[in-house]
Amino acid sequence: MNEQAWLLDWILAITLVLLAWQVLSITDLFKAIVLFITTGLIMAFTWVRLEAVDIALAEAAIGAGLTGVLFLTTLSHLSSPRGSGHQPDPTHTQENQDNEPR
Description:
- This protein is an all-alpha fold.
- It has helices spanning 3-25, 29-49, 53-79, 90-99.
- The protein is elongated.
- The protein contains 4 helices and no strands.
């Protein structure tokens, strides 16, 4: 193995450790999800470097792609208002009452 390959392997290893630490320590959920997806993609590239292309494809598709989409969907449901319907705007209902014929 030449020097450039060793350097790339070390950069991948350090990047994975730093990204994993960031995912675990960050408080903003959206940023944590984006970093999780990034970690999955870097991990897939690491599997390619280890000549395990089948595992790399699974990591990219399931680990980064599907799980990331599920996390983002869950986050959007967590940030939406609860209840079955949309709560009317109080100013909008007041305008409607003023315009109704009596």
